[in-house]
Amino acid sequence: MKNELENVEKLQEIIVKQAQEINYLKEKLDYLIRQKYSSKSEKFPFNQPSLFDEYNQDSKEEIIVEEDTEVIEYSRKRGGRKKAPASLPRVRVEHDIPEEDKICSCGDKMHLVKELISEQYDIVPARFQVVENVRLVYACRCGAKPKTTPVPPMILPKAQITPSFLATLAVQKFEDALPLHRQAKIFKHRFGTPFSDTTLSNWIIKGSTALKPIIELLHQKLLDNEYIQADETTLQVLKEKNKQASQKSYIWLGVGMDRYPIVYMHYAHSRSANIASNLFKGFSGYLQSDGYAGYNSIVAQEDIIQLGCLVHARRKFADILKSTKSDQTSKTYAQEAVTLIQKLYKIEKTIKEEPPDIKQTIRQEQAKPIINTLRAWIDKYLQ
Q: How far is residue 320's CA from residue 202's CA, in Å, rounded to a whole number?
């Protein structure tokens, strides 16, 4: 009889563990399905009721989970065109009336009283031109060695391309996503220039090599900041030496947030912590990331204070709210966290256009108490 009871208890333990595992797998499956097929929006309305007015966890008030949709508000705006940006150059075109029409019916000559100005956008189409660098040679009849004008400095001295053309190639390829073979085709058909995509590619590669000292200087200026945001993203490179096309490479990113607003990108074959150690070696200050453990080693070595990201922290709670498998208790806790973080978002939205000193003052007055409340909330449930 005793053995039978022990067997029953063991079976009950197994059933409980299996039920927990099944529930975990259901939540994980639900999360993966939403990641693949559902909207990625994480927006929740700011005017949802706060759960912290009366900090009472025993309340049985039902928590309403918002649907995973983005609310778009439409408002009527009175007509009127937006004024063209002041940074654009202006070309003045005067439209005058004939001289004979400037004589009034009374016989006197009319005088100009005002100008009516209307603006139109205009684009000057791209055009190719050939820059002829003419170097002058001077000689004396006495037979002395001639003197020639020195070669002007060039990024690619032996290439038939100006810095402006090289910059255009780079911007169209990397910023406008226009491949080099399409650029070569446009140049050939529209302007009759005999460039191949191989030629353009060689110019881009040589140009990047020539700019290496500037890139190294930008890296140094990045490390001179006191606050840097860091991230890394995958990149697939075709026909790379010693790598298959299916293997991932990475672009590491560092953004200077205070002294020098530099955006620095570094290509690497992997996401190894050694990359972060080399990239931020010598930096002292605040380093903010998404919590990837690869940054931990450089933080331990250097005089760096590591900062987290509320967007990534909030995302986990938002996933619980959007889950159809999470229990009501978990949703209640998640709603509390999202509500607090939303209050911080609302403050940041209000002070977005304010100068740094005003932002700091408002954050100390309004955001800091909310962060303290969030810290207390975390400590309470970690106990």
A: 50
Q: How far apart are CA 202 and CA 380, in angstroms?
A: 61
Count Cβ atoms within 10 A of the Cβ of residue 16 and give its class: 0-12 exposed, 13-18 middle, 19 or more buried: exposed
Per-residue confidence in pLDDT tens, the chain, 383 aa: 667 777 777 888 888 888 888 877 877 777 777 677 766 666 654 444 444 444 444 433 333 444 444 444 445 556 567 888 888 899 999 999 999 888 888 888 999 999 988 888 888 888 888 999 899 999 999 989 999 999 888 888 888 889 999 999 999 998 999 999 999 999 999 888 888 999 999 999 999 888 899 999 999 999 999 999 999 998 888 777 777 777 888 999 999 988 899 999 999 888 888 898 889 988 988 999 888 888 888 888 778 888 888 888 888 888 888 776 677 888 888 888 888 888 888 998 888 888 888 998 999 999 999 989 888 888 887 66
Q: Could you tell me the sign of the dihedral formed by the alpha carbons of 19, 22, 28, 34, in that order? A: negative
Q: Phi, psi at residue 235, to the nearest 5°?
A: -150, 130
- Report if pTM > 0.85: no
- Separation CA 217–CA 215 (nearest Å): 5
Ranges of each domain in the chain = 159-210, 225-308, 310-383
Question: What does the alpha-carbon distance between residue 196 and residue 180 come to, in Å, rounded to a whole number?
Answer: 9
Q: What amino acid occupies position 151?
A: V
Angle at 155 between CA 153 and CA 159, to 5 degrees: 100
Nearest to 224 by CA among 255, 252, 259: 259
Integer angstrom CA distances of residue 295 from 229, 242, 310: 12, 26, 17
Among 294, 229, 242, 295, smallest CA distance to 269 is for 242
